[in-house]
Amino acid sequence: MLSIHSFTFNPFQENTYLIHDEDGVAALIDPGCHEPEEKEELVAFVEKHQLKIEQLWNTHCHIDHVLGNAWAKRKWGVPLWIHEKEMPVLKSVEVYAPNYGFHGYEGASPDEFLEEGQILTLGKEQLKVLFVPGHSPGHVVFYHEPSKRCIGGDTLFRGSIGRTDLPGGNHSLLLSKIKSELFTLPSETVVFPGHGPETTIQFEKINNPFVGEKAIY
């Protein structure tokens, strides 16, 4: 059984996810923790539940999703996985982080590259890498087929989609990929987004104003 826990960090109100199997083998996804108290909250949860963090994954590499990468790599001695097309996005954070007030930002280099269709093994569980660019050039989603749940990053939100006006964004591509990669998942699939509350594929197919049956954009 896969357990999913969320934490909301940094001024962007980013959702960081900690997932683990029944034995406590865990992966940290999009660590947005920057302030000491945010890191302390995450560490306290890991220690309380005796989790063993073995992987560090980024859905994509915008600043709000990578603030804690370097710290997490050191803290738990884990490799960082990103899609190769996110390399320029990750590197650019070092340049613009001070403009957002993150003067202490420390960059982290990836150790492995994620690939479309790749199966990631986390203890007794497996997740599939879905390639859903558009919000950023190498955005991926992690899908757990047995429980019909996915960590969606900034692709699909409840009643909205990821913004596409940032460098490397592509609006038409994002709409296309949501339909071909996410809307082909079972309707009951729960999406855990990078911001805001959870949603389901069924709800978004019907109600999403960008890609649903009632689309107005």
UniProtKB/TrEMBL annotation:
Record domain Metallo-beta-lactamase: where: 13-195
Signal peptide feature range: none
Protein name: MBL fold metallo-hydrolase
Co-factor requirement: Zn(2+)
Annotated keywords: Hydrolase, Metal-binding, Zinc
Listed InterPro entries: MBL_Glyoxalase_II, Metallo-B-lactamas, RibonucZ/Hydroxyglut_hydro
Gene3D superfamilies the UniProt entry points to: Ribonuclease Z/Hydroxyacylglutathione hydrolase-like
Taxon lineage: Bacteria, Pseudomonadati, Bacteroidota, Cytophagia, Cytophagales
